[in-house]
Amino acid sequence: MLTDADGPAARCARLVKIYPSASGETHALRGIEASFPRGALTAVTGPSGSGKSSLLSVLALRERQSGGELWIAGRSAETLTGRALRHLRRYDVAWVAQRPTHSLFDGLVAREQVEQAARLRAADLAECARLLDRLGLSARAGARNRELSGGEQQRLAVAAAVVGAPGLVVADEPTAELDDDTSSLVLAELRRCAQGGSAVVFATHDQRAIAAADRVLHLRYGVVSTEAMAGAQALAQIDSTGRLQLPPEALALFPQGRAQVVLDGLGVRLLPADGRDAPSVPTDERHGR
Ligand SMILES: Nc1ncnc2c1ncn2[C@@H]1O[C@H](COP(=O)(O)OP(=O)(O)OP(=O)(O)O)[C@@H](O)[C@H]1O
Fold first, then answer.
1. Where do the ABC transporter domain residues begin and end (predicted)?
2. Long-range contacts of 245-254 (CB under 8 A, 24+ apart)
3. Residues 113 and 169 grouped into a single domain
4. Are residues 218 and 278 in the same domain?
5. Which residues of the chain have pLDDT under 70?
6. Total number of domains in the chain
7. In a domain, 5, yes or no
C-alpha cells in the first residue's frame, strides 16, 4: 500500500523522457515539474504530441524515465527494485491505457476483471457488483472483452482501476470513447475514487473531463506550460531552473528569441532584445485565452 500519507501520491522534478526514433531521438518530456495530490482529480491537457501519454506512462510506472526524478509515495522510482516496481504496479498504481483492452485481461469476463483487481487490493468483493452497476455494466458482467463495445471496455477498465481505491489512478483519455451520459458515469466514479483518498490523474482532450477536474496541467513541447485550479486563472509555471514557457501569441514579440528581463516594483517585464518597449498585447491574449 502507498505510504507517506501526508505527501502527494506522486511528484516529479525535471522529468525527462526520450524515445529513440528513426531521426535520432524524440524528447517527449523535457523537464516536467508537477505533483499529484491525494483526493484530487488532475487533468493533463495539451496538443497532440505534447507529451501527455508519455507523462502518464512514466507516472504509472509502465515506462522508466530517461532523466529527472519521480517519487511515488515519497520513494524515488529510480531506486525501486524490479520487485518493488511490480508490487506498486499491481497493488497501488492503477492504469487505464489509451486503448482500454491494454489494461484488461483477454481470458476473463467483465465481472472477473473487476474482482481480480479487487482481490489484489484486498477490497470488498461485494463492491464489484455495485461498481459495475454504477458504470452501467451490470448487464454485461458475463461478457468477454471482444464482446464489449469500445465504450464498455473503457468503463470496465476504469472499474478495474478504481476498485479498492489504489493510491494513484492514472488514466489515458478515459472518456474518449464515451457519450455524454456514460462519460458522466466515469467522471463520477473517478471523483468517488479521489474522495476515497486516491490521487487521480487523467490525460484528456474532452471538455467535460477538463471541467470535472480540480486542477489542470497544460503541457506544450514536453513541459508544463500552465497550471490552473478549478475555476481559477491559469498560471504559467516557472520551473526549478527558472524557465517559463511563453504563450504562443507572445512569442511573436521576440523574433530574435531574446528578451531583456526587467524587474520593477510590480513584477517582471520582458522586453524585445533591442530595448524597445514591448508592443501592447490585448489582455485576453496575455492570459492565453
Ligand atoms: N514509444 C514511442 N517511441 C517513439 N516516440 C514516441 C513514443 N511514444 C511517444 N513518442 C513521441 O513522443 C512525443 C510525445 O508523444 P505522446 O504520445 O506522449 O503525446 P500526447 O500528448 O499524448 O499525444 P496525443 O494527444 O496525440 O495522444 C511525440 O512526438 C511522439 O511521437
1. 13-246
2. 245/220, 245/221, 246/270, 247/285, 247/286, 247/288, 249/281, 249/285, 249/288, 250/281, 250/285, 250/286, 253/278, 253/279, 253/281
3. yes
4. no
5. 1-6, 275-289
6. 2
7. no
ipTM above threshold 0.95:
yes
Q: Using the 3D structure, point to which of 229, 258, 275 is the last residue of a domain.
A: 229
CB 200 within 8 A of CB 161: no
- Say if residue 253 is in the same domain as residue 122: no
Supply the pLDDT for residue 279.
Answer: 52
Distance 164 CA to ligand 1 centre (A): 30
Single pTM value for the model: 0.90
Task: Give the position, in ligand 1's atom list, of the atom nearest the Cα of 222.
Answer: 14
Map residue 143 onto helix, strand or coil.
Answer: coil
Q: How far is the CA of 90 from the centre of ligand 1 (A)?
A: 25
Residue count of the chain, please give it: 289
Nearest atom (ligand 1) to Cα of 29: 14
Closest CA to 108 of 76, 140, 85: 140
Instruction: Spell out where the chain has E strands.
Output: 10-21, 24-36, 41-45, 67-72, 75-76, 93-96, 168-172, 199-203, 215-220, 223-229, 235-236, 259-263, 268-272
Residue 178's domain comprises 10-229
Q: Are 63 and 139 members of one domain?
A: yes
Residue 222 beta carbon below 6 angstroms from any ligand 1 atom: no
CA 100 to centroid of ligand 1, rounded, Å: 17
Nearest partner of 129 among 104, 153, 112, 150, judged by Cα: 112
Q: Is the CB of 49 under 6 A from ligand 1?
A: yes
Q: Give dist(CA 92, CA 106) in Å, integer.
A: 22
